[in-house]
Amino acid sequence: MVEDSEEKTPLVTKVLAKCGVRYTHLVQRTPPSLQRSICKTVNPKLGCPRRLLGKEAELWTKARGVEQRNAGLAAVRALDPSNGVVYFGDDDNTYTLEIFELMRQTEKVSVWPVGLSGGVMYEGPKVENNVVTGFYVGWQPTRPFPIDMAGFAINVAEIMARPSLKFDATATRGYLESTFLLQIIPSKEHMEPLLSDCECVLVWHTRTQAPDLKWDGKVEKPPLEV
Q: How far is CA 49 from the centre of its chain?
């Protein structure tokens, strides 16, 4: 677990101590250049309503969690593991325990649907004959891999075989996953769909606010078991 802080905070330390599972607590502060901007003018589209003038914007215009995920990758490499799977969990997601068991099957890069993500009820891969042929997605569908960070896992061997593999802090908004995965696989056809051809949802981008589903009625997709 990588905390966005200069030092370990008592709050996170206590939560981890009570979680009941083995953990490693690391810290990596997001540099000022990647933090949220200070609102200088009123601009709701950038997350700057009048009440936030002089304060941090509500929206992030740059990639989030880059430094923390890269710190996590460095920690994995330091362990020099011979087998395992790497998954990038976030504090604003909700998971079933089943997803962690299923991702153990990952041979290279596995993929599955994520609920309440990208402005739709769920977004995820289209699968035909166990091959990913496209994606159910509303926002920026032309991205190489238009998926959420919670929707894929990587066999640790792929990380160990690429010492320079990391997330790009300069990636265009929404392309953080794509720029990362393109360092491992060339296209969607190389992804491994899990969850019985991705027919159910076992992870949700719940966040701490009401979900924004503005794209949901515009994306044709089959119903899934949730």
A: 27
